[in-house]
Structures are given as structure tokens and as C-alpha cells.
Amino acid sequence: MHAGLPRLALTAGEPAGVGPELLVRLAAMPLAAGTVAITDRNLLQRAAQRCGVAIALHEDDGRPRPHEPGSLRVRHVPLAVEERPGHPDPRNAHHVLATLAEAADGCQAGRYAAVVTAPLQKATINDAGIPFSGHTEFFAQRAGADVVMMLASPELRVALATTHLPLRAVADAVTADALERTLAIVHGELQRKFGLARPRIAVLGLNPHAGEGGHLGHEERDVIEPVLARLRGHGMQLLGPLPADTAFVPAMRERYDAVLAMYHDQALPVLKSEAFDRTVNLTLGLPFIRTSVDHGTALDLAGTGRADPSSLVAAARMAIDLVARSATTPLSPLRGEGKG
């Protein structure tokens, strides 16, 4: 493989979902990278047959090779039981987690430059008696890192202060320390991964109208505003706290490079409604690059061969771009000059 091409680890996610079919469709396309699918080779072969895709599967020997459309290197991780499309089986939960562990450990060991993940079924892993919150939390624990979930399209980047929490737990989770750590990660990763020397970050309020001066909640006044003031003093360009209902209008978008939302459903519906097939989920703060689709397992489509691979293709291409940019973009001093 050309020295400049990254080697991507691809995980298939839930075996009974659309992930395996998305992987074989991705494998049929040109990519400026090497690719290694970490899953059961027979699962991929069955998925290819369902999709009507001709694919040559080769055991990965660890040697760098460029991706060839219609061909895929595989690091075989066997299923416990054969998949039934549309019907997840908790007996395969350990298989799913083993593929994620290999991808994460392989990235940290230098075997892969990035990991690109297809969707998994969190409930099925929990049904197997394994506490599991999601990819983001798994990779954070595996790497021992503080992380932030971001979803990005070509037009908009949205990071989350909290991820997979019940709504009633969100206010307690938005603490000054947590918010400051999150903003530090987002700021640094916008520099390293997106090449923005002085990123502009819009921070949403937690409550309607960003608290209405304390009349609709006190989190903005007591937590968010003091953190933003302190970090502005360290040189960060922070806008807000902004009311979420007006933060995404065109005139506001011109003023920032990314948004930090307080909770999962506060901002992601905006992003997904306008760019569902072009949006990528990425985990900021890891010692390696991880991107993913922005959708779920689509169990109703699994086995039909009709699942759209656009989001996985976007995730793979973003991973390639991020690897290249991370290798060439130095971290700017917080108080340094530059243009975002």
C-alpha cells in the first residue's frame, strides 16, 4: 500500500442488522485507503449474496495493501450462532464486543489508522447481561479517555455535552467541570482534526430561551455562563448560551464552526433532518480516529439488500480525511493567532 494511504478497520455492528450489507456495498466502491473488515467472513459472504454483490474475501495477514473495489480483507471473528436478518440474538453479543475491542486495540497498536463502525443494537447486548451504553462509551473506556460525541455533515457540526441519558438526568449531568472538559476536547479536536486554528463554538442553553434570565431555569446563569466566561478568558471563541430554537437559523450559522448541545435530542434532529445520508458520527478525544454511520440497525430493512450505504461511505471518507489532516495539523496555542 502507498505509504500515504491509511488502513481502516471496519466493524459490521449487529449481525442481524443492515451493517454487514453496508460493509459489502462499501467494499464495492473505490476508497483511498486500505480496508480490513473485523467480523465473521461467512456473515459477509451471506450479506453479499443477499445484496447481489460480487465480493472476494481474503484473510487479513497484516500487510498493508490498497483497497480494491470488489475485494475486502477480513480479520475473522466468528459468530456464536448464524444471524437471522431482522432478529438480533443476544448470543452474538460477545462477537460484537470482540470486534470493537480488536478495532480499538488495533488502532492503539498501530495496525489501523482509524475505525469505521456500522450500527449495533445496544438493547441486544444488554439483553445478554452485559451493561452497554454505546460505541462512544465503549471506546472511551477501552482507551481510558474522556470523549465527546460529535455528528458532522458538510454543513454543520454538532457536539454533545451529554449522550445517552434519560432526559430527567440531563440537568444533573451538566456540571461546570464536565462542561469545561467537554469544551476543551471539542476546541482541541476542531484544531487537530478539522484544521481550525481558532474554532468558534456556539454553546446552547439547557432550558427554553436559554433560561430567560433565570425565569425558565437556572442552569445557564449558575453553570453555563460562568464556564463560558472563564474559558473566554483563556482565549476560546465561545458564543452563547444560545436558545436552541434560533441557534440554527442561517444568519447564526455564519457565526460559528460547531455547536455544543446540552443533550442528544436538542440539536441532532436539525442535523439529521437536513443531511441524514451525509452525516457522520465521530468520537472526539480518543487517541485514534473513530467514525460511524448516523443511523441505527434498520432491522426492518435487514436481509432485503436495499439498505442505503451513503452514511457509511461518508464515514469512511471522513475517516480518511481526518487521518490526513491529523498528520499535518499542529495544535495551536489557546491564545495563539490564526483564522478558523
Question: What report would you give on this structure?
Answer:
This protein has 340 residues and is α/β, with parallel strands linked by helices. The chain folds into 2 domains: 1-145 and 286-340, Isopropylmalate Dehydrogenase (3-Layer(aba) Sandwich); 147-283, Isopropylmalate Dehydrogenase, CATH 3.40.718. It is built from 11 helices and 12 strands. A 12-stranded mixed β-sheet has the order 3-4-2-1-5-12-11-6-7-10-8-9. Helix 1 crosses helix 2 (41-51). The radius of gyration is 20 Å and the shape is globular. It starts with 6 loop residues before the first strand and ends in a 12-residue tail after the last helix.
Helices and strands, with pairings:
Elements: E1 7-11, H1 19-27, E2 34-39, H2 41-51, E3 56-59, E4 71-76, H3 93-109, E5 114-117, H4 122-127, H5 135-143, E6 148-152, E7 157-160, H6 167-173, H7 176-194, E8 200-204, H8 219-232, E9 237-242, H9 250-253, E10 258-261, H10 264-275, E11 280-284, E12 289-292, H11 310-328
Parallel strand pairs: 1-2, 1-5, 2-4, 3-4, 5-12, 7-10, 8-9, 8-10
Antiparallel strand pairs: 6-7, 6-11, 11-12
Task: Looking at this protein, list some descriptive labels.
alpha/beta, Isopropylmalate Dehydrogenase, twelve-stranded mixed β-sheet, 11 helices, globular
